[in-house]
Write a structure and sequence with these properties.
The protein is an alpha/beta fold. It has a single domain (2-208), classed as BirA Bifunctional Protein, domain 2. It has helices at 14-30, 96-113, 179-183, 189-204, and strands at residues 2-11, 36-42, 46-49, 64-66, 73-76, 80-86, 119-121, 124-129, 134-144, 147-155, 206-208. α2 (96-113) crosses α4. The longest helix is centred in the middle third of the chain and has 18 residues, at 96-113.
């Protein structure tokens, strides 16, 4: 079992959280024996575009970031569970497809705890509900010398209208849903975090260290 520290950035602008991630990746590369890190964060409204962005992707305004994660366009805003794992993948973990599937499985187990059936798709990274009809979580990752960064965004109670300005991950904006929309009421974000942390540690064989 590897040690895992949890860093809660709270409500944090995307640019600041992105800079923090990159610094932690550098630190992890220089000190691979240090604990892995799981970052919690909620972003003010922001659009990010990954390596698969299309030329027409983009929205007006300053809150646009073109970054090195996989995937296309997505939207972050308050009420999302956004998690950035900074993990040093060991030899048995060095399979990016497996890493993505493990993130999907973790999110599906979280949703199950709240009575929602989540599924993965073979042709589209992320987590879907209603037998694949609606998308509830987006995943986009990057890896540098087998240290992971970027991560997942689970729609918990966030306003989905921000997706209307983009084609999220190449799909119509109407494809997006949230736990609040599925359940008819918003679950407590802290309880969703606790569920995620439990399932993440089990799936990735990490143990939380208390600071």
């Amino acid at each position: 079992m590897r040690n895992l520290a949890v860093l809660d950035l709270g409500a944090c602008p995307y640019e600041e959280a992105y800079s923090r991630q990159r610094a932690l990746v550098t630190q992890k590369l220089e000190h691979p024996e240090s604990p892995d890190i799981l970052i919690w964060v909620e972003h003010p409204d922001v659009y990010t575009f990954g390596r698969k962005k299309t030329p027409e992707a983009g929205v007006a305004g300053k809150s646009n970031f073109f970054i090195e994660r996989g995937g296309e366009a997505t939207f972050h805003n308050p009420g999302q569970l956004v998690v950035y794992p900074i993990l040093k993948l060991d030899s048995k973990e060095r399979d990016l497809h497996r890493y993505l599937r493990d993130l999907e499985s973790t999110l599906c187990l979280v949703l199950k705890d709240f009575g929602i059936e989540g599924v993965g798709k073979t042709d589209a990274t992320g987590v879907w509900v209603e037998k694949g009809g609606k998308k509830i979580a987006s995943i986009g990752v990057a890896v540098k010398s087998w240290v992971t960064y970027h991560g997942v965004a689970l729609n918990v109670s966030n306003d989905l209208r921000g997706f209307e300005k983009i084609a999220p991950c190449g799909f119509p904006s109407t494809i997006m849903t949230s736990m609040q929309e599925m359940l008819g009421a918003a679950p407590d974000l802290e309880s969703v975090r606790k569920s995620f942390l439990q399932h993440f540690c089990m799936r990735f064989e990490r143990v939380i260290i208390r600071g």
